[in-house]
């Protein structure tokens, strides 16, 4: 049995041969929008590489970002296939070296895989001295993905387990429901990670097919941040030799629901939330205004609504975010707990408040807090790499917070915010009827009925 | 899902053997930016400067931690800290005043200290520290503030009590430490209800003294921080600090078991051992043992798991003196009795035979990686810097800890396993429905 598995893996590997020569990244001078400390270039195998060396903890974040629909490329959506495929590739031993998961684990590092509607992020944080080795291991695994039977088994077990845990997370449940209501088609309509049974239903052939198309060097953005040498990306391997993988994937085109209605679902505890579509990432000033609004209302502990909820309903859960996406972005709020109805009233009050201009003093205070939060969220290599990767796959890397430092596009857009403009943006996007999500525990079965 | 340890052990041995064949080239040891030390008179600042960080953070340690609480005052340290954050400065509560100027303040109560973490954009940190010093010199212990502080603490206690791992670790600490260091960090609902303004005042006057202050910083540090910290210390009363009892109960050979019942889905097991202090020559070896015990039995997920998803994990607790090591088993992921037996078998075998060179290298690398990747943001780094420095590792204390880890030998690991891992306390957190049958 085991030799048969090895043969199958070997056959796939023969199909996906790495180019042995010219493996080094052809790094070119950085683009002005990223600032002088950042090197941006093209990998020899295609794809983009962004390197941001920094002083500080001797660690490195090494991340590969791909634009790829979470439900796969086929006509029939396959929820969770992207998540499973990434896990399986990281668990499978490539032709050369160890499986990525093993390499990172043995270094005492951390490996995470996160899937969004139209992107996949594979992220490691490791000792900086191991950055080159991890760049090599990650690109070896993902630029010519090998899917072994053993890797598939391990990956499926892990992702089923993750799906089980995620099923108890109110934020994920509400966010998925909001997206499902706002979008009637495209990967945005489906959860990026479905239920365990969705994961179990995916076959190894689906995983191979997805991995082969999605995990290509030309479709990748490799981001490295931390206490690293600017030339660290030289360790990246080349792409495939078959020449069939020249173009990156285009963004998935979502289909907006024509008349979004309320969404009712069952969940382990009373929960709810709502959401609106917002500006595309290209509308940088409006997108930044939405970030400001989310920060002002919902930032943990400090936010206007968050503070009111914590004071009156200390057991309640509340989160609110603007998710910057290619087109459109999404503002969503999720709350949970026995006082969900009362929490919603406070959330409504908060949104009503931002639809009119804040008074100058309140705006100045809120802006100082927002600016601090932006900075505080840029203090680790992982935070920086996450930003660069996310904004790259969503189509506007120069707008990533941290790109260009304080004179970068994001900080400039923030500096240009005014009370009137924020209110105008709120009025434009947040005055419409939102998709409203209501979740309640399943009613107990009537006595005498079937269990 | 359960973990088959009989399979895990040979797999571990095979992994260790394989690593020996790889022969990785040595790389230079990782180091944090070299720390500096500034004498501020009655206190001292140690810091690591990241010139490109967008913010700066400082931990201000006050020797007013759990070990200074009387037995009947559990929670008073946290109550004072909560009140301090709510103390008005120019009419605005300290926490809001710092936030309004673009910053944050948080606090943590641990065995030896309460430490306040302030973070702002670089040039504003001295002003935030000055604000903090003004509140520190005149804290508000009015009945209204005490009530609000108590409400906030009770909420956090509720979160803590619903976490089986926290409960298990707390059970071990209560059993291990005879002093207040074994008390719950935030007290209990019962003890907090009995604490009032007079208790907070008395604790504050007994502990918040100039000699109790030390500070550590990380990030893009602006000039003026030292002067601001001086003003913090000078706002407090002079005078000596009372001595504390830095001791632990001897762990009996018969391995005591403590049982508690909570609303948890499955049993959790916490095994507590004594452990060396950071300045001890045994520190590096204990870091290796922590990595070994946490990693050898976990369910080998490709991606890194959080503590709730892990089947086995370990924490090295050096916030109190003496230190301790806890290893936990998550009953939702592994059979607790099998896991416990295997952990103890391995602990014993480690004391009987030294690790081979390859295995030692593997677990040292894992320990170093875990140490580094858990100490990245400015809050964690400044905390480690300060707590290690205060325990005798010198100003450049994080790098000193890394050096201790790198210098660890197989004989060290065997010696430390023999000295510390042969006696233990077992804390069991069981689901409530099993109560009737136990």
Secondary-structure blueprint:
The complex is a heterodimer of chains A (451) and B (438).
Chain A (H helix, E strand, L loop, with lengths): L1 H14 L23 E4 L5 E6 L5 E9 L13 H11 L8 H7 L3 E7 L2 E9 L3 H13 L5 H18 L3 H13 E3 L10 H5 L3 H11 L5 E7 L28 E2 L6 E4 L4 E8 L5 H15 L5 H9 L4 E7 L5 E8 L3 H15 L5 H17 L4 H13 L15 H7 L3 H12 L4 E6 L11
Parallel strand pairs in A: 2-7, 9-13
Antiparallel strand pairs in A: 1-2, 3-5, 3-7, 4-5, 6-8, 10-12, 10-13, 11-12
Helix pairs in contact in A: 2-5, 2-8, 9-14, 9-15, 10-11
Chain B lengths: L4 H18 L13 E4 L4 E6 L6 E7 L13 H11 L1 E2 L2 E2 H7 L2 E7 L4 E7 L4 H13 L5 H19 L2 H13 L12 H6 L2 H11 L5 E7 L5 H10 L22 E6 L5 E8 L7 H13 L16 E6 L5 E8 L5 H17 L4 H17 L4 H16 L3 H10 L3 H11 L4 E7 L7
Parallel strand pairs in B: 2-8, 9-13
Antiparallel strand pairs in B: 1-2, 3-7, 3-8, 4-5, 6-7, 10-12, 10-13, 11-12
Helix pairs in contact in B: 1-12, 2-5, 2-8, 4-9, 10-12, 10-14, 10-15, 11-15, 13-14
| Quaternary structure | heterodimer
What's the tally of helices of chain B?
Answer: 15
Which chain pair has the greatest contact? A-B, 52 and 54 residues
The neighbouring-strand order within the major sheet of chain A is: 1-2-7-3-5-4
* Rg over alpha carbons of chain B: 22 Å
Q: What spatial form of chain B do the alpha-carbon principal axes imply?
A: globular
CATH architecture of the largest domain in chain B: 2-Layer Sandwich
Q: Into which percent range does the helicity of residues of chain A fall?
A: 25-40%
Largest sheet of chain B: 6 strands, mixed
Number of strands of chain A: 13
**For the residues shown, what is the average pLDDT of chain B?**
90
CATH-scheme architecture of the largest domain in chain A: 2-Layer Sandwich
The span between the termini of chain A is 41 Å
Strands of the widest sheet of chain B, in order across it, are: 1-2-8-3-7-6
Task: Tag the structure with descriptive keywords.
heterodimer, A: about 450 residues, alpha+beta, Cytochrome Bc1 Complex, Chain A, domain 1, 2 domains, six-stranded mixed β-sheet, five-stranded mixed β-sheet, 15 helices, about 40% helix, disordered N terminus, B: about 450 residues, 13 strands, globular
